[in-house]
Design brief:
heterodimer; A: alpha+beta; Aldehyde Oxidoreductase, domain 4; 7-stranded mixed beta sheet; 5-stranded mixed beta sheet; B: Ubiquitin-like (UB roll); DNA polymerase, domain 1; 2 domains; binds FE2/S2 (inorganic) cluster
Chain lengths: ~750, ~160
């Protein structure tokens, strides 16, 4: 179902945009031919194995590779000594020090060394012979432990940034961010109802099904070709070059198909190791991560502790909001608390606000983006408290949100937004309020919860080159890895611009030497920003096509108009020329036709999603079963509605897993106890119902087709929607994740005075 | 090193390969035979990305030893289409947009094929349980379940020639 909102500045009737063709890369994906990272082999290729720290925190006293080097089949061994010292500008998120441990290991699973041998078995056996001497150090695993006085330090020189006075002593708090507006005390004094609660969330993993993998082939002339799956091969090139101390021109990165990322493949793990091993061995080297290593050593999303206090008048007007947020960032500093702070009150126009957030390092893997990173935890807190207020003042929770919802012209303190352009929060709320699912009667032990989510989306750099073929087809090359159907969206926009059938357009992802620089596929930016680059290139091509038609007609280019894929003579003196007729004559009119569009995009449209969860709690076991799920999201314009729905549904499913099941479990020594899909259980088909989608279309005025970006926001509302539904079903307010059967049952027993 | 010689039918092709005795069938298919359609998502039987059909039985290829395939018959995603004619499940997955990244797709296609061969008219719940051994992190399963139900209806109308009754 799609709700189109009129009064749009953007033209609404399209021939191709908004249709649902089969994606161009689909056939290869249903017949097993699509090549993902681990599917690559090269002649003479050998295999790498990575040695990882068994300890959560330890000094490395020595690494002795002598015995390993003499093992059968071994061609190369690398240790930290093979890489230049980390550059002063360590960047986000201290990649170089994270990629291979130097003087210290800071989490279980951190890389210590790597071996390449003829077979995987030999590489693994040799890695086991690398002798590492450690001196174990005390570790910290949670924000509470890490922020405590006298806590063991991960970084002896980490001085908290962002405090009013710079502390003299190091701590595990990397940074504090602070924002305030209005008069907080006066705001709370005006309120009739005030609630303040504390929430905790656990570390969870993106859980993409394809483990990280790469093949590197380094030649004697000091160049290396890397084949890998990532969310951005230009990022792989720059990060790998930085780690190696090489020039970017020495590396060519070829994007494989990517088997899921969700933010988790916006950084590198294996590539510099593979390049170095390949250089030493003078052979192509392949490294594939095991699932266990994916869990232990690649970017999960932070565990958090968040306190939120909100005040409201009896009529539902929010008067004040205060938030304190502490986000783990893993073993190296990140910006997760800051992002949480940007999102925590973003959907609401609250006059008096104070937000204080912290980045806290702990002895766990370094966090990396996970779909609308940091927003779901913040929304869990805010949306649960809002629900409580609505109940207290006996107001419909959607009406309460509508009353306070931000709209065009309202201010948002995140540096990504500032003043809101036209946004669709109210429209998603209305779509849910008016949805038949909001009124379906519920049975015993059943409950309904609603929640809203915000994500700012990002824009960044994108490039596209469009080449017209001799017979009037188009090849659209972009630099954006396609995680979930973006190629077909690029083709649809190109079809609309050029006026040719989408099936005659071949969208491809070019390698780092085939197309201009393009930032990572993240922040829901690809259809927005890379789409703009495609549109720009196509418009340039249309100008060229008109010029060629003018040459063919021997008239002035001003007399040629481009309508529906054809050149028309304004005086109707000539019969229209199709694109194919013009390209067929290209040799006579000036040569091949192609154009490049590249830009630093601006004006991404913030995304909002409102969702209803209906569930039933089994009073015997505490298990919550999702009965129905409905999500309304503002897409701006849905270029390919099926893939927009897919993003919405996928985000919801991940949110449900996060809410009900998923968590990292560590033992006392900081060793992860559930590094596999059996014990780290993500939702399976029998856990979920159909996920009903309502695509709301409030076009983004800053995009030629009104695109906002749809990839992320869907994961923001599920946790609070579920928590609110559990409350509706049982009266229990759960504020700690996951809301697993054990936790629910504990709560029910307490309620009944049992146990 | 002594390697084991295995002969089997893979997607109707008589195939021979050498493998280690403790090598998984998944590794043998991918590394020795060069069929990379089946994926390794976990290597421990928990994700279903490596699903194939061995002697008519849906299995996780990562949990079988390669020598077990000797004398057997293997179906993988690469053999699903009949020449240029896609299997109705493949068509249905494309039309319903049931894949986002597509890394889980080969496994789901195999699991769904095995289901429909045994139960041509499954309910939504039966479909959900039949594919519960396959993880997809991208789609939330909605469009996958729809595709399987759609293909089942299609196949009841137009049974595939030569398919097992
Ligand atoms: S790889 Fe076989 S079940 Fe996951
Ligand atoms: S489509 Fe990506 S895991 Fe299923």
């Amino acid at each position: 179902m799609t709700v189109a909102v009129e009064e749009s500045p953007v033209k609404k009737s399209y021939k191709w945009v908004g249709t649902r063709p089969v994606r161009h890369d689909g056939l290869e994906k249903v017949n097993g031919k699509a090549r993902f990272a681990a599917d690559m082999t090269k002649p003479r290729m050998i295999h790498g194995h990575v040695l990882r720290s068994p300890l959560a925190h330890a000094k490395i006293l020595s690494v002795d590779t002598t015995e390993a080097e003499s093992m059968p089949g071994v061609k190369a061994v690398v240790t930290a000594a093979d890489f230049p010292p980390p550059s002063k500008n360590e960047g986000f998120p201290h990649r170089s020090s994270n990629l291979i441990a130097r003087e210290k290991v800071r989490y279980e699973g951190q890389v210590v060394a790597a071996v390449a041998a003829t077979t995987r078995r030999q590489a693994k056996a040799a890695a086991a012979k690398i002798a590492v001497k450690y001196e174990e150090l005390p570790h910290v695993l949670t924000v509470d432990e890490a922020m405590a006085d006298g806590a063991p330090l991960l970084h002896e020189n980490l001085i908290t940034k962002g405090l009013d006075t710079t502390p003299k002593q190091a701590s595990n708090i990397a940074k504090r961010d602070y924002f305030e507006q209005g008069d907080l005390e006066a705001g709370f004094a005006e309120a009739d109802v005030v609630y303040e609660h504390e929430f905790t969330t656990k570390v969870v993993h993106q859980g993409y099904i394809e483990p990280h993998a790469c093949v590197a082939d380094t030649s004697k002339d000091g160049r290396s070709e890397i084949w890998c799956s990532s969310q951005g091969h230009f990022m792989v090139r720059s990060a790998t070059a930085e780690m190696l101390g090489w020039e970017t021109s020495q590396l060519k990165v070829i994007p494989a198909e990517i088997g899921g990322g969700f933010g988790g493949k916006t950084t590198i793990y294996l590539e510099p190791l593979a390049v170095k091993l390949s250089q030493k061995a003078n052979r192509p080297v392949k490294i594939v991560m095991r699932r266990e290593d994916v869990f232990k050593a690649t970017g999960p999303t932070p565990g958090t502790k968040i306190r939120v206090k909100i005040g409201a008048r009896k009529d539902g007007t929010l008067t004040a909001g205060k938030a304190w947020l502490a986000y783990e960032s893993g073993a190296f500093p990140g910006s997760w608390g800051m992002l949480g702070g940007w999102c925590v009150f973003a959907p609401y126009d609250i006059p008096n606000v104070q937000i204080e957030s912290f980045e806290v390092v702990v002895n766990k893997p370094v966090n990396i983006a996970y779909r609308a990173p940091s927003a779901p935890m913040a929304a869990f807190a805010t949306e649960t408290v809002i629900d409580q207020i609505a109940r207290e003042i006996k107001m419909d929770p959607i009406e309460l949100r509508l009353l306070n919802a931000v709209e065009e012209g309202d201010y948002n303190h995140s540096s990504m937004v500032g003043t809101f352009q036209r946004i669709g929060l109210k429209e998603t709320l209305e779509a849910i309020r008016d949805h038949p699912n909001y009124k379906i009667p519920l049975g015993p032990n059943q409950g309904r919860g609603v929640a809203t989510g915000f994500w700012f989306n990002i824009a960044q750099s994108s490039s596209a080159t469009v080449n017209l073929t001799e017979n009037g087809r188009a090849v659209v090359v972009t630099g954006s890895p396609d995680i979930g159907g973006s190629r077909v969206s690029m083709a649809l926009m190109a079809a609309e611009e050029l006026g040719i059938d989408v099936k005659f357009i071949q969208p491809v992802v070019g390698d780092t030497e085939a197309v201009g620089f393009t930032d990572v596929t993240e922040g829901s930016r690809t259809t927005f920003a890379t789409g703009m680059a495609v549109v720009r290139a196509c418009r340039e091509l249309v100008t060229q096509l008109r010029e060629r038609a003018a040459i063919m007609w021997d008239c002035s280019v001003e007399d040629v108009e481009w309508v529906d894929g054809k050149a028309h003579h304004s005086g109707n003196k000539e019969s229209p020329l199709s694109l194919a007729e013009i390209t067929a004559k290209a040799k006579k009119t000036g040569g091949p036709l192609n154009a490049t569009g590249s830009l630093e995009a601006k004006g991404q449209g913030p995304a909002f999603s409102t969702q209803i969860c209906d569930l039933e709690v089994d009073p015997e076991t505490g298990k919550a079963t999702i009965l129905r799920y409905t999500t309304a999201q503002d897409a701006g314009t849905a270029i390919h509605p099926s893939y927009v729905e897919g993003q919405m549904q996928g985000g919801v499913a991940q949110g449900i897993g996060w809410a009900l099941n998923e968590e990292y479990i560590h033992d006392k020594k900081g060793v992860m106890q559930n590094p596999g899909f059996l014990d780290y259980r993500i939702p399976v088909a029998s856990d979920l119902p159909m996920i009903e989608t309502v695509i709301v279309e409030v076009p983004n005025p800053k995009h030629p087709y009104g695109v906002r970006g749809v990839g992320e926001v869907g994961i923001v509302p599920p946790i609070p929607a579920i928590a609110n539904a559990i409350h509706d079903a049982t009266g229990l307010r759960l504020r700690d994740l996951p809301m697993s059967p054990v936790r629910v049952l504990e709560g029910l027993n307490q309620q009944n005075g049992v146990g | 090193m002594n390697r084991t010689h295995v002969t089997c039918m893979i997607n109707d092709d008589e195939t021979e390969f050498l493998c280690d005795n403790d090598e998984s069938l998944l590794d043998a298919l991918r590394d020795e035979v060069g069929l990379t359609g089946a994926k390794e998502g976990c290597g421990t039987g928990d994700c279903g990305a490596c699903s194939i059909i061995l002697n008519g039985q849906l299995i996780c290829a990562c949990l079988a030893f390669a020598p077990e395939a000797n004398g057997g018959t293997i179906e993988t995603v690469e053999g699903m289409a009949d020449g240029d004619r896609l299997h109705p499940l493949q068509t249905s997955f494309l039309e319903e947009a049931s894949l986002q990244c597509g890394v889980c797709t080969p496994g789901f296609l195999m699991a769904a094929k095995a289901l429909l061969e045994n139960n041509p008219d499954p309910t939504e719940t039966e479909v959900r349980y039949a594919i519960a051994g396959n993880l997809c992190r991208c789609t939330g399963y909605d469009k996958i379940v729809r595709a399987v139900l759609g293909a089942a209806a299609q196949m009841r109308k137009n049974p595939i020639e030569g398919a097992r009754p």
